[in-house]
Structure formats: structure tokens, C-alpha cells
Amino acid sequence: MFWLTPGNLKADVVAEAAQPVADQVLDCSGMACPLPVVKTSQAIKKIDPGQVLELLATDPGVEPDMRAWTTRTGNELLSIARQGDVFHVLIRRMK
Amino acid sequence: MWTGDLDSKVLYVQTHGVSDPGRSATPFFLAASAAAMECEVMIYFTMYGPTLLRKDVIDKIGPKGDHGQPLRYFIEQATGLGVRLLVCQPSLDLNDLRIGDLLDGVTMIGGAAFNDLAISADAVISF
User: Fold this and answer.
1) Is the CB of B38 inside 8 Å of chain A's CB atoms?
2) pLDDT tens across B70-94, in order?
3) B77 interface with A at CB cutoff 8 Å
4) In Å, what is the CA distance from B84 to each residue of A16, A95, B76?
5) Residue B13: inside a domain, yes or no?
6) Do the interacting molecules here have an ipTM over 0.90?
7) Which residues from chain A sit within 8 angstroms of residue B36, using beta carbons?
8) Which of A15, A18, A33, A38 is catalytic?
9) Cβ of B33 and A73 within 8 Å?
10) What is the per-residue burial (b if ≥16 Cβ within 10 Å, else e) of A7-20?
């Protein structure tokens, strides 16, 4: 597995990011902008605050998009990992 | 016209119409993304823009012309997330349209209302 290193992501952050287990998985593989964002915004409302959503996406813009989306919406971006062509994004619903 | 219920307000302005299909869908894409980011979003259609909202057009053309996803797909993606669509009377006249020729739910406004929306928006993005 290849971990994205935006900024200077340190090894301990990567280890920590690998911990949470998703309560719900949203597969947006093969979907283009803006569908991963749109579907994530809908899916996050279907889990409880504190629970974790795992987004699977192949859109290469998903990393900056999910950083912006979580910052805007006040949800927590736990990790983004890339496995082959698929990005695994873990997001904790905060409110 | 902004409710102020959400933290940010984004106003898109679409001036291109059916004669330039490649410019038709992006404002809907971006508006849908902004709505998904919990922004309050409107798209104002002026100049040739209102032609993109014609009932008799939205199933026939899309950004790739007469193939690929039709405009209805992009419009409904945006409006399904709460994006509101606005037009102005002079631009309907320009295109020989009446409000009844357009999709249901399109709101007619005038120049003062548009300027007021723009002044109070957090961002105005024009195409």
C-alpha cells in the first residue's frame, strides 16, 4: 500500500491513520467529479456522529477535494491511502 | 433571497447557452460540489444562459452535444442538493423565451436582486 504524503506526513501519523475501522463503506470507484463529493455528503448524513465512513474513489482529484470538503463541513479527515488506482479515504462524522 | 442558514453563500453566473454545449455543464458541477460542502448556492442565468433551462432542450443536449449525459442529469444533480436557479427578464427576451418555456422551479429576478445577491455572497463565480 502506498500512503500519500501531503505536506510532511510523518510515520507515526501513518500508523495512527491505519487504525480506524469504517462503519460504512461508500464505493465511488469509476465516478468522476463531483460525484464522490456529492455522494460523500449524502453518505455522511446516514452514519452517526463519531462513526467513520470509508470512501473508495479512483478520481485523481479526490485527495484535495476531500481535504477541502472535510474542512468546510467540519468533519474529520482521518487518512487517505492509495492502493493501486483506488484511494481509500477515512472520514469521521463530527456533528 | 439568501436564507443565511448555511455558513457560506456562493453565486454562479452562467452566460453561455445551447450554442456552446461544452460550457453548459461545469457551473452545475461546481454548484453541486458547493452545495455538498454545505454552502448555500444559486446559479444566475443571463445573456444566453437561460437557453440551457428550456424544457424542450434539457433532454436533447449535454456538454458533449447530442451524445453523453444530457443537461437534465447535471441540472437535477445540482437542484437535488438544494441549488436554486435564477433568470432575469431581459435575458429571456433576448432569447425569445418566456418563463413557462423553462424548467419548473426557476425563479425570475431583476438586476437589483442580482446585485444584492452578489454583494452579500461570499463568492461570485462567472462563466
Assistant:
1) yes
2) 999 999 999 999 999 999 889 999 9
3) yes
4) 41, 26, 11
5) yes
6) no
7) 34, 37-38, 40-42, 69
8) A33
9) no
10) eeeeeeeeeebeeb
